[in-house]
Give the backbone structure.
Amino acid sequence: MFCIKCGVELTDGQNICPVCGTRVYHPDVPVKEALPTYPKKDFESEEFNRKGVLFVVTILMMLITGLALAFDITINDAIVWSGYVTGSLFVLYFCIIFPLWFRRTTPAVFVPVGFASIILFLFYINLHTSGNWFLSFAFPVAGIFGLIITAMATLCHYLRRGWLYIIGGGLLALGGWILLLEFFLHLTFSLPSHVIWSPFPCATLAVFGMMLIIIAIVKPLKESLKRVFYVGKM
């Protein structure tokens, strides 16, 4: 049995085409009347429980931070290791817990917030270790990577089609980012100039990225892959 719209082969137990979503029609099988549907009701108790759990997690993380700082200052008369614990919890909170407080998570806002927390934590590590690698290495590397991921997540969130172009372009951008990563490593830490590794992962990402873009451009190839792998909108 085949779909009457896109032609993909179907099994006997399928009622809806997995590719285009068309209802399966068979002339020998009587069509059952659809049961009435009821509107979904959002109960306030579920929302209250979700925020209650987030509140408990927030208080627990603040308690762990306070205990770590208290023990560290009591034992060492200074902040030695508790800053790393506090920074790690800070990053974990703003990358995972903080977006859950909102009904709608917007990648254009929450992804940069997560990367900003990571950059601030790296800045603290640089200050605590008296290093000179933040401005010349950590900030540009993490910042560029954050921009790439933010752009990909935002486009995939707002656009219903063209994901192959987005992911393919993102892979190409990540390949260029790896080249910059090696450049900043050599610039900051004075690595031997003959040690060159970035072109290999860059070339691999470029190949996969171009493959996805070619698949998106060649419509017969894209349609055949959709039928084989039962993929929806690409």
